[in-house]
Design a protein that fits this description.
402 residues, alpha/beta, Rossmann fold, seven-stranded mixed sheet, four-stranded parallel sheet, 11 strands, 43% helix, binds pyridoxal-5'-phosphate
């Protein structure tokens, strides 16, 4: 059997220039300053995989290891915490710069705010970030998860004091259910995707993710390095929009080639890029993929223009590619560091490794201009957030290479 990727190329020179001012360096600076004020903050490692790069025939590979983020094993808390911070700042009529972590969680701020209930739908990581932030603020969080979610992930959200249940629906229908509850009961909906009429908070979520991109940028800059290629995984595309917007804004005409990676069971951005008719094209039904964080069928409305204007490639991949990426990162070559990366976190590593080594993917490798001069930047957006699944793949070899 051979590996099959589906690729859509997007000629960004033909697209209208997008306004990236909301994802500029100035915004990234403000967001990073907010996150730095958290006592749980430390910069996550940017791991250089020199030996792997040599083995694959690339100049270098850097991977940002978000398993270290705030002790929560995933990057997602960056979006939720900044959004809740921004929401509270607005409610108090303050600038977020006057609301560092210590002030935000203070007794006085709690007294001024009164009781708030935050509600969200999640595959796990985002909900954990919201539950964690609400816990810091001594506020309530209600979290719903799509059908098939791992109980282990649900229990980790409950451990932060949130109410958390698994529904009978897919991610997008679970989002709709939460929104109905929010409207009915006056809860604050903190969702990591947008739709017409709900766009302010998702914009802050995207901005929150910029901390991860900005840290990586600053680290590379300190070594006089610039990536030639970025691969970024996508569910609704909020993360991808934050990363794409930031790097396109900061590098301008020297921007790296950006490739979005989605599971073939939930490839809504790939489908939208392929149709190329200015409409969004959702994927519906059960999106039964091991890449739980990427199992989203409806692209983020406010992110699509950023992606359409600045992403060169949209790639749809099989399950085994993510599993391969987990094994590559978990079993490094001598001299390289180990990165513990979950299904959604490792998808891009699987892509790069297979593109460089599989004969049947040689054409795509060429179209993506990957060669011995390429400096590749990846984001391992989660650690082993589903511990049992991680061991099944990395130790027991499920989803073997095809
Ligand atoms: C680990 C992980 N990586 C990537 C993503 C994708 O983010 P987005 O839905 O913004 O595309 C998610 C989303 O939940 C995630 O949990």
């Amino acid at each position: 059997m051979t590996v099959k990727f589906d690729l859509v190329q997007n000629d960004i020179t033909k697209r209208q220039k997008t306004d990236l001012s909301f994802l500029s360096e100035d915004v990234a600076k403000k967001v990073l300053k907010f996150h730095k004020s958290f006592e749980q903050y430390w910069e996550t490692p940017l791991v250089e995989l020199k030996e792997l790069a040599r083995y694959l025939g690339l100049k270098d590979i850097f991977i940002k290891d978000e398993s270290y983020r705030f002790g929560l094993n995933a990057f997602k808390v960056l979006g939720g915490s900044f959004t809740i911070g921004q929401y509270i700042a607005n409610k108090l009529g303050k600038n977020i710069e006057e609301l560092p972590y210590k002030t935000m969680i203070s007794h006085e701020v709690k007294k001024q705010l009164g009781d708030i209930t935050f509600i969200t739908a999640t595959d796990g990581n985002h909900g954990r970030g919201i539950a964690w932030t609400a816990e810091q603020l001594k506020q309530k969080a209600i979290v719903y998860m799509p059908k098939g979610s791992a109980l282990e992930r649900r229990d980790r959200i409950r451990a932060h004091g949130a109410t958390c249940e698994i529904t009978e629906w897919n991610y997008d229908d679970t989002v709709r259910y939460c929104n109905e509850l929010a409207e009915k009961n006056g809860y604050v909906m903190v969702q990591d995707t947008a739709w017409p009429g709900y766009e302010e908070l998702p914009r802050w979520i995207m901005q929150g993710y910029m901390t991860m991109a900005y840290e990586a940028y600053l680290k590379l800059k300190s070594q006089n390095l610039r990536p030639t290629h970025i691969f970024i995984q996508a569910g609704v595309g909020s993360l991808a929009s934050g990363v794409t917007g930031f790097f396109s804004s900061i590098y301008a005409d020297k921007k790296p080639i950006i490739t979005i990676v989605e599971p073939d069971k939930a490839a809504c951005l790939y489908k939208t890029a392929k149709a190329d008719d200015e409409k969004l094209h959702p994927v519906t039904g059960e999106m039964n993929t091991i890449m739980a964080g990427l199992a989203c069928g409806e692209p983020i409305t406010i992110g699509w223009p950023v992606l359409h204007g600045n992403v060169e490639n949209f790639l749809s991949i099989p399950e085994e590619t993510a599993a391969h990426g987990m094994r590559v990162l978990g079993n490094p070559l001598k001299g390289d560091e180990r990165v513990i990366s979950g299904e959604s976190g490792a998808a891009t590593m699987g892509v790069v490794s297979q593109l460089m080594k599989k004969e049947e993917l040689a054409d795509i490798k060429k179209l993506l201009k990957l060669d011995e001069n390429s400096v590749v930047l990846l984001f391992s957006t989660e650690g082993d957030t589903y511990f049992e699944g991680y061991r099944d793949i990395v130790w027991n070899g499920s989803y073997p290479n095809i």
